[in-house]
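Retro notes (design track)

What went well: tokenization of the new backbones is finally stable.
What didn't: we kept losing track of which sequence belonged to which structure.
Fix going forward: every design gets posted as structure first, then sequence, in one message. First example under the new rule, 104 residues:
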């Protein structure tokens, strides 16, 4: 598993140069077990940070999609409230309460 995770981490790292990435790949192909241990020791913290950042970005994107799909996005709620206010289905006080709740 680690053998496949290291190249994925190398290509997701935007701070390393292309020469460093190709060097790690070549050494990984020639001496896989030693290279895996060295990579985990020298770059393990960065590997974890990049994985956590990618996971947080994916989770944030998923939550945003769910909010928009469910109509619970504050901007969507306020826009829906404005439409109801224009048509006369709600009063200004109800719209203000909806707006305050959406922004909270």
């Amino acid at each position: 598993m680690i053998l496949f995770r290291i190249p994925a981490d190398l290509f997701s790292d935007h701070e390393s140069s292309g020469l460093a990435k190709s060097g790690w790949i070549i050494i990984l192909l020639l001496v896989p077990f030693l290279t895996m241990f060295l990579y985990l020791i020298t770059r393990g913290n960065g590997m974890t940070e990049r994985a956590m950042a990618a996971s947080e970005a994916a989770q944030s994107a998923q939550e945003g999609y769910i909010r928009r799909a469910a109509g619970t996005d504050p901007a969507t709620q306020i826009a829906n409230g404005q439409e109801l206010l224009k048509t006369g289905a709600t009063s200004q006080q109800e719209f203000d309460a909806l707006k305050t709740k959406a922004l909270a």
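Added context from the reviewer: Helices lie at 2-12, 18-30, 32-70, 74-87, 92-103.
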